[in-house]
Amino acid sequence: MRRALIALAAATLSVLPLAACGDDQAGSGGNGSVSVALITKNSTNPFFVTMQDGAKQAAAAEGMKITIAAGKADGDEAGQVQAIEDAIARGDAGILITPNGPGVNPAIKKARDAGLYVIALDTPPDPANTVDITFATDNFKAGELIGKWTATTLAGKPAVIAMLDLFNDKIVSVDYNRDQGFLTGMGIDAKDKKRNGDEEKTGKYTGGTYTIACNEPTNGAEDGGRTAMERCLTKNPGINVVYTINEPAAVGAQKALKAANVQNPIVVSIDGGCDGVQQVKDGLINATSQQYPLKMAELGVKAIKQIAGGGQKPQVTAGLDFYDTGVALVTDKPATGVDSIDVAKGTELCWGKK
User: How far apart are CA 96 and CA 177, in angstroms?
Assistant: First the structure.
């Protein structure tokens, strides 16, 4: 499967819309090798571990040298800034980065000013032109899919919603796009789509009424998801819908729900790793939006090699400010009018196999 995804990524890049670029040979050694740095948010989340593995395999296939770095935890901007400085000092041709927040933007500008081509993966920075291009999931669409599925599945039943986000101390596009996409899919007016938590706390969703019980940060981690869910249940024990920023947070949330003996809550998430798809099969998560980190990494590595060799630069997907690497809703309980794939197909496409 991994070999197939690598082949797919290479084929996809070959048909990207292209724009001319110069003959910059920065990052190429005397033997023609090209060096690239991959800087992920952390090295513990299976999503980023998979991305690292995919980048290593793609770099080996392309005959490139790759350096892997990461923040100590989700949100560690200082660690990513140091990794960017290191890439500049090495004279790398380019950087692939999943930005931990706006605090890395000045360092990215410094790298680009030094001649490095910088590609964001998974998380478009704000503003988008902070980097040369982003290869990412359409995170708003990913949220919208699970929101539409939830609204349809509720079938008019009142919704008491817990919003388990990423942060509450910094603004990151992946956080607000998923949150705001979910609300929009539910038919709830999200107001400022770059701000979490400013929507009306009560009102109507598509088909019924809603109450937003809480917006709590999880840091994208299982322990954070459990703590956030516990806080939400303290505020409103009647929660029956749980939106989670990712599947590790969903696992933590389910532990808190089980401990509180909450019966049959709807829990939705975003990631689509093999563990997450198994959780959908087991009923711990009802639906998840699957994204494709291998594809992001492999496209990014190939693009750096192409540009360093004097080739052409990739362009964004029409109508977006990034290149969309795709998303699919995974559930065994399809909802009318909402495109989805079943667990069997999700398992075939999932990442992070042990």
Answer: 21
120: three-class secondary structure by DSSP:
strand
Distance CA 17, CA 92 (A): 25
Domains located in the chain, CATH noted: 2-137+292-321 (3.40.50.2300), 139-290+328-349 (3.40.50.2300)
SS3 299: helix
C-alpha distances in Å from residue 99, one per residue of 40, 124, 336: 7, 8, 36
Q: Is the dihedral of CA 53, 83, 168, 255 positive or negative?
A: positive
Taking the C-alpha atoms of residue 267 and residue 85, their distance in angstroms, rounded to an integer, is: 40
- Residue 267: helix, strand or coil by DSSP? strand
pLDDT in tens, 250-291: 999 999 999 999 999 999 999 999 999 999 999 999 999 999
Confidence label for 353 from pLDDT (cuts 50, 70 and 90): confident
Asked, as a colleague might, if the bond just before 158 is cis with ω within 30 of 0, I would say no
3-state secondary structure of 1: coil
Q: Mutual orientation of helices 222-235 and 247-259 as an angle, nearest 10°? A: 50
State pLDDT tens for residues 94-147.
Answer: 999 999 999 999 999 999 999 999 999 998 998 999 999 999 999 999 999 999
Q: Read off the tokens for 144.
A: 């919208």
pLDDT in the model for residue 27:
61
Q: Is 36 helix (H, G, I), strand (E, B) or coil?
A: strand
Contact in structure between 104 and 145 (CB atoms under 8 Å): no
Between the alpha carbon of residue 208 and those of residues 73, 187, 203, 268, the distances in Å are: 39, 10, 9, 18
Query: Could you tell me where the DSSP H helices lie in 199-273?
Result: 222-235, 247-259
User: How far, in Å, are 64, 145, 211, 310 from residue 332 at the CA level?
Assistant: 41, 14, 27, 47
CB-based contacts of 271, cutoff 8 Å, min separation 6: 47, 246, 247, 288, 289, 290, 291
